């Protein structure tokens, strides 16, 4: 048995997105994200958002299990997405990869960069 504590899995994505509307509609992103948080049995403790002049947005969703953060650049058709889940009672790695896949599908995105960090 491995008694080494590993705090969690951190997925960092840079995505190319053709549909600029997806990169400028914060409300739709939050609705989709909140649905996925519920389905994956995660718990929100706070959310902070900002919509930029010109249409991009940023959001940080703090979870009991850590966070989901996004920053969009509609002028470049790109976004960065940060998903980090930890839990001292269970391994949330599957949830991290599931959420990453769901976000890629939601944005119908091409992956520019994908980095996984074991914390």
Q: Please count the beta strands (DSSP E, at least 2 residues each).
A: 6
Q: What name does the CATH topology carry? A: S-adenosylmethionine decarboxylase
Distance between the termini: 19 Å
Mean pLDDT metric: 93
CATH C-level name: Alpha Beta
- Count of individual domains: 1
Walk across the major sheet and give the strand order: 2-3-4-5-1-6
Characterise this structure:
With 119 residues, the protein is an alpha+beta fold. It is built from 3 helices and 6 strands, in the order βααββββαβ. 28% of the residues lie in helices and 42% in strands. A 6-stranded antiparallel sheet has the order 2-3-4-5-1-6, with helices on one face. A hairpin with a 4-residue loop joins strand 4 (66-73) and strand 5 (78-86). The radius of gyration is 14 Å and the shape is globular. The mean pLDDT is 93.
Kindly summarize this structure in a few lines:
With 119 residues, the chain is of the alpha+beta class. The chain has helices at residues 20-24, 26-39, 93-106; strands at residues 8-16, 44-51, 57-63, 66-73, 78-86, 110-118. It is built from three helices and six strands.
Write out key terms for the chains shown.
119 residues, alpha+beta, 28% helix, 42% strand, single chain, 6-stranded antiparallel beta sheet, S-adenosylmethionine decarboxylase
Secondary structure blueprint with pairings:
Layout (H helix, E strand, L loop, with lengths): L7 E9 L3 H5 L1 H14 L4 E8 L5 E7 L2 E8 L4 E9 L6 H14 L3 E9 L1
Antiparallel strand pairs: 1-5, 1-6, 2-3, 3-4, 4-5
